[in-house]
Amino acid sequence: MQPLAPADFKRFDTYARRVQTLYLDMREVPLGLSLITQSRDAPLLPSLQAIHLYKKGWITWNLCAERVRAAASLFLVPTLRSLDMSGTPRTALPVTDFLVDLPRECPHLEELIYEPGIASSLAFMGQLSQLRSLEICGMCGLVDTDFESLSRLRGLRSLTLYDLFAPQSSPSPPVTSSFSSLQYLTIANGNAQGVSRLLQMASTSPLQSLDIKWLKLSRLKDISIPISALLPFAESLVTLFISVGGAQNEIVRVADIRGLTKLHSLQTLYLFFPSNIQLGDIEAMGQAWPVLRNLLLRDMSMPCSFRHLAAFAAHFPSLRELDIDSLVIDDGDLPSLNSDGRAARSHPLLELKLQFVTWVERPVFDRLAKAILSIFPGLLRVDPCMELNSAVQRWKEVQRIRLLMKKGQQKA
């Protein structure tokens, strides 16, 4: 390579000042960039605002820590707002060394996505005073001081943590003003104690959305542990997702999730675990969540019938989307196709999702479609059952024609 001349620096700087977002393949750091960096004191990309260290396939997992550190440290500048290190190889444990310099090198950093997230590297987190969004994978080695480092992020609004495990005997943390601005929290692949511990530390935050994915439970009834930690968010929480990971031979009793009925501000609720919610429980659920707009219930121990749908219509007046596992069609539940039954009142439901519907002849689908429209008159579609959705669309067309005929008779 020819020695770099002053004209080369000038030409490079012309373009470098325009670069705001950088996507960097960590498998190699271009030699030219390294030489330019070593030959000058000024930042390489002085206007850089976002860095994405990405990976291509399995090769990335064999990267050495030194290469990752070199790739990232070339571009740490005061203007940086976002650093995405989700491509960091799990084998590059010493890569955490240069992250300690982040508060000094990038004082305005607002977003950090970090993998693998070694617990020993979290001490510096509390100094990132401008951080608004944080995602860390690999939290299984957490200790109390790591929780405290995260909780000092007063401006943090969005937090995503993977592998959040805590010992079953770990004591409850003291209630403080930790996570004072936290609004969006995602916890994936954690145990009940780890999730509960974090929720207790964030108990004074204005949490609006909570997503608990693949919750690891030794017993399904232990789901009551994190649920009991949700009470402080009764007035602020509007979106809640809970899914349990792994095959389970047990069924969650309604008593184990009764704490959810105290979250009266919920507008979206997704429950993805085996449960024994019965027809008689729907009324109490509707009273507990009067403004609920989106409801997903999966892995229910018993399939729903039309009577269940009618109960949802009667007790969930704000529901826009209903997603349930399966629908068993019982002729005895359905009104006659020739009956002149009309909807007693309007209902705002727009989308009905039925993951499985027992197959029946077309006349029975037509009866079911008419019955569904009688309780959900504003329904737009049924997914993914094409036969039932087609029947609903046919009846909606019949209703439209009848309305036109009625208007014509009134004008005459």
Automatic annotation (TrEMBL):
GO cellular component: SCF ubiquitin ligase complex
UniProt cross-references to InterPro entries, sorted A to Z: LRR_dom_sf
An individual GO BP term: SCF-dependent proteasomal ubiquitin-dependent protein catabolic process
TM stretches of this protein: none
UniProt superkingdom: Eukaryota
Listed Gene3D superfamilies: Ribonuclease Inhibitor (3.80.10.10)
SUPFAM superfamilies registered for this protein in UniProt: L domain-like
Name by which UniProt lists this protein: F-box domain-containing protein
Species of provenance: Jaapia argillacea MUCL 33604
Lineage: Eukaryota, Fungi, Dikarya, Basidiomycota, Agaricomycotina
